[in-house]
Every structure is written in C-alpha cells, then in structure tokens.
C-alpha cells in the first residue's frame, strides 16, 4: 500500500464535498474491489471517502411489491431479509452466492453496481427486473445505467443512494461460479411478469451485462426449461479468457437459464 488520505463521511453532503475537494478521490463502501486494486497498484487514489457510516444509505424497505434497497446495504443483509424473501427469493439467493461470508458482510449493493464488474451478480438482477438506480442527483433505469466493462452512466460527482424495483411474479438466478473467486463465469437472471419475459446475462459478455434475445424469445412462448432445448446463443459477442472460451460460455448461458427457470417456477 501507499500513503492515502482517509475520510469517514457522516452524511451524503459531506461525502460529496470531500470528493470534490480531493485531488483524486475515490468512494469506498465495502472496499471489496477497491482495496485489492490499491494493494496491487491498479488504483492509486489520493483520498478515500468512506460511505459505510452514512445511515441514509442503508436499509431495506418493502411496500407491496416495491422494494427499495439502500446503496450501503450489504450482500448479507439482502440475502437474509425476510421481506424480500417473501416476494423475490431469487434476489436473496443471488446475494447469498456472492463471494464468501467475509465478502457478503462487507460488500454492498451500491458498490457492486457502481463498479459494474462484468462478472458481478447484481447487474443481471437489476437489468432483468428493470430496476431504477437512484443517485444524489437523479434516477437512472438499469437499461441506461450499465454502459460497458466497469463503466456506468454515473457522473464523477454522483453517488448511488438506493436501488428500487417491483418484484416480478416469477424470478430465478443461476450461475456457474469461478471456483476460486466465486465470480460468475456465466450467470443468468430470468423474470416472468405478466406477459413479459426478461433474461439478463452476467460474466459472459464482451461488453458486460446484457439481455439475451434468444433466451427471452424462447421463454416467451413457453416459460419452461424444455423451451430452451436446442436454442443457439451467438458466441461472437461473448468473452474468451483463461477460464472459458466464448463458445463454452454460449453453452453455459443456456444451461444456467434452464436452472434459473426451474427456480422461478419452483
């Protein structure tokens, strides 16, 4: 590590001021991505502005089927929330698959979304459920929020405050995890709500999270695992790395989508 100025913000307003006054400031909440990046010198901010102790960024509210989750809420809190479990168990399941217990008790939903790692779990859920990301300045629909690998629509002086979505009638999530990091080598979140079907894929796209038209089209006709038999997901826009080829990930998308549908219909 190297010398860095640490600031513990007590309010959203204070965090914004500290960020503005810093030469090269970075926001930190759980720190599960930024701290390792700093240790390996992939990131070298002059200042860290800690959001973890801002009360207004934490908490879960469920009103009817509308769920609002504060950006500072940890994965463990999402995974264990009884109110979410009643209306959207797939999201609790997703949160419980993230990392290990340490990561789940430190990492936050806001931090995950702001970082937009191409193998993170939450982006798939937010995109599939047409969630809205709330910031200190505006509301951004998920379709417009995720703009590429580690890229979002956030401005430099913008902080995620919460996410909001209406729990769908059916939802399921399945992923093929990297055995070491537990990041998704491919993960699929499927939703059926009224006549609409949405399927969002993480861990596989060359440009980050995306919706699979092939999976959605098949499931719109028949929301069952059998409907996905024989479909082909193009591999040309998928990721190839040391863990899996694009072609292998194309197959994983179908396999994980089938498991997700089983959960959704469970």
What do the pLDDT scores average to? 96
Instruction: Detail the poorly predicted runs.
Output: none
Q: Tell me about the biggest sheet? A: 5 strands, antiparallel
Number of domains: 3
Q: What is the succession of H and E elements? A: EHEHEEEHHHHHHEEHEEEEEEEHH
Q: What's the arrangement of strands in the largest beta sheet?
A: 4-5-10-6-7
Radius of gyration, CA atoms, in whole angstroms: 18 Å
Oligomeric state, counting identical vs distinct chains: single chain
Strand content: 25-35%
Q: What is the number of strand segments?
A: 14
Per the CATH scheme, the topology name of the largest domain is Uridine Diphospho-n-acetylenolpyruvylglucosamine Reductase, domain 3
Helix content: 25-40%
Question: Which CATH architecture of the largest domain?
Answer: 2-Layer Sandwich
Shape: globular
Structural class computed from helices and strand pairing: alpha+beta
Count of helical regions: 11
- CATH class annotation of the largest domain: Alpha Beta
List keywords for this structure.
four-stranded antiparallel β-sheet; 11 helices; Uridine Diphospho-n-acetylenolpyruvylglucosamine Reductase, domain 3; Uridine Diphospho-n-acetylenolpyruvylglucosamine Reductase, domain 2; single chain; 14 strands; five-stranded antiparallel β-sheet; 25% strand; alpha+beta; 266 residues; Enolase-like, domain 1
């Amino acid at each position: 590590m190297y010398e860095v100025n640490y600031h513990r913000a007590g309010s959203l307003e204070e965090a914004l001021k500290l960020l503005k006054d810093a030469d090269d400031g970075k926001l930190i909440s759980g720190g599960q991505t930024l701290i390792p990046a700093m240790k390996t010198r992939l990131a070298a901010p002059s200042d860290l502005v800690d959001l973890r102790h801002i009360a207004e960024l934490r908490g879960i509210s469920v009103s009817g089927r509308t769920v609002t989750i504060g950006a500072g809420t940890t994965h463990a809190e999402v995974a264990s929330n009884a109110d979410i479990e009643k209306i959207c168990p797939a999201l609790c399941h997703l949160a419980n698959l993230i990392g290990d217990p340490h990561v789940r008790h430190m990492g936050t939903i806001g931090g995950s979304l702001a970082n937009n790692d191409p193998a993170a779990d939450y982006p798939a859920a937010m995109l599939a459920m047409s969630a809205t990301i709330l910031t200190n300045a505006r509301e951004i629909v998920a379709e417009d929020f995720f703009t590429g690998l580690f890229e979002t629509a956030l401005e430099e002086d913008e902080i995620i405050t919460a996410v909001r979505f209406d729990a769908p009638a059916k939802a399921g999530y399945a992923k093929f995890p990297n055995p070491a990091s537990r990041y998704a080598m491919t993960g699929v979140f499927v939703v059926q709500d009224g006549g609409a079907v949405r399927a969002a894929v993480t861990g596989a796209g060359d440009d980050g999270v995306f919706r699979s038209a092939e999976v959605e089209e098949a499931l719109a006709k028949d929301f069952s695992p059998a409907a996905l038999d024989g479909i082909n997901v193009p591999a040309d826009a998928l990721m190839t790395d040391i863990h899996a080829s694009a072609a292998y990930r194309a197959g994983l998308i179908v396999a994980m989508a089938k498991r997700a549908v089983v959960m959704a219909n469970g």
